[in-house]
Amino acid sequence: MRNIGAMDQDCYCCPICTQLFIAKAIDAGILTLEHAPPQKVGGKPLALTCKECNSAAGYSVDSAVVQKQRQIDFTEAIMGQKSNYKGRATFSIGENTLNIDFERDQGITSIKPIEEINDPDKLRAYQDYMMHLQQAGKWDGQKFTITPNAKYHIKYSKVGDLKTAFILCFAFFGYRFALHNRLAAVREQIINYKEDIIDHYWHTSDPKVNREHFLFLVKKPFSALAVKLDNSTVLLPWVTGPNDFYEHLGEYFVNREPVNFDGLFFNWPVSLEMRLDYMKTQTQNLGG
Ligand SMILES: [Zn+2]
User: Fold this and answer.
1) Please, what sign has the CA dihedral across residues 10, 13, 14, 20?
2) Is residue 127 in some structural domain?
3) Are residues 201 and 252 in the same domain?
4) Stronger pLDDT, 10 or 112, i.e. the higher one
């Protein structure tokens, strides 16, 4: 904060809501570690955020990201692309629907009805049917469906990805980036996650992109940051570039034609690097 001239004493600024806190806020539990992506999907602790940002927006958007990942994992387990998975699901065959534990362990799939949360009649019908199959010694061809219990809020999961991208870029570039005017709408969207403040920031990743995770500082056709997450790519404004960044993006994507980007790749940060705040030569190299 001193480096960017915002404060002359030790303090910490929550990168999302921009409120300032003194060091005691950590002991008081007002500032807590923020994982990007959320811890449950393997994120690293990269920054501190304040309790308000962490509990209000944090809980809803993070759990949507986690539930979405559960659904993707489940789909991959069903398709045989993932050899280990365990979770609740529903199993439907004919008129009968049951709550089951679905498990894929070392490539072997098993389903097990959960006694406590199923109608005893339905459970009996299922057991009779399984006995019938066992006696016949083969599957009778009747169709069945298995549906995961992991449901998620699509919009919240997208805001969750936006938050992950923002925290990753804050950790990498620092306050000069996170507190920049051009990022104000992004911060506002993360806090007011139920509202539609910005659009066009979230994109399904192109399957031809084979690098799993990266930050990409776009230089052409306009300045921007692209953050590649597990299954999506989030676009953020850079400190230079179009003023109405997301409106500008909207015009680009309106024709739904492919857009080619030129720029620089960076790996995801593993700690608070804050390059724009500390490394003056780097700043010039980054075009800031
Ligand atoms: Zn905050």
Assistant:
1) positive
2) yes
3) yes
4) 112
What is the distance in A from the centroid of ligand 1 to the CA of 56? 10
Domain boundary among 104, 133, 148: 148
Q: Which domain holds residue 111?
A: 83-148
Residues 62 and 184 in one domain: yes
Q: Could you tell me how many helices (H) and strands (E) the chain has, helices first?
A: 10, 13
Q: Are residues 254 and 197 in the same domain?
A: yes
Cα of 61 from ligand 1 centre, angstroms: 15
- Other Cβ atoms within 10 Å of 117 Cβ, number: 10
Helix, strand, coil shares of the chain, percent, nearest 5, are 40, 25, 35
Give the residues across from 202 on adjacent strands. Answer: 234
pLDDT at 282 over 70: no
Identify the pLDDT of residue 243.
85
CA of 19 to the centre of ligand 1 (A): 6
The alpha carbon dihedral of 240, 243, 246, 248 has a sign of negative
State the distance between the two ends of the chain, measured CA to CA, in whole angstroms: 18
Q: Does one domain contain both 264 and 234?
A: yes
The pLDDT, as a whole number, for residue 288 is: 41
The reply to whether 117 and 245 lie within a common domain is no
Q: Per the structure, how many domains does the chain have?
A: 2
Residues 15 and 49 sit within 8 Å (Cβ to Cβ):
yes
pLDDT band at 148 (very low <50, low <70, confident <90, very high): confident
Of the two residues 4 and 110, the one the predictor is more confident about is: 110
CA of 185 to the centre of ligand 1 (A): 15
This prediction's pTM: 0.85
Two structure tokens written together for 222: 């306009």
Say whether both 47 and 165 belong to one domain: yes
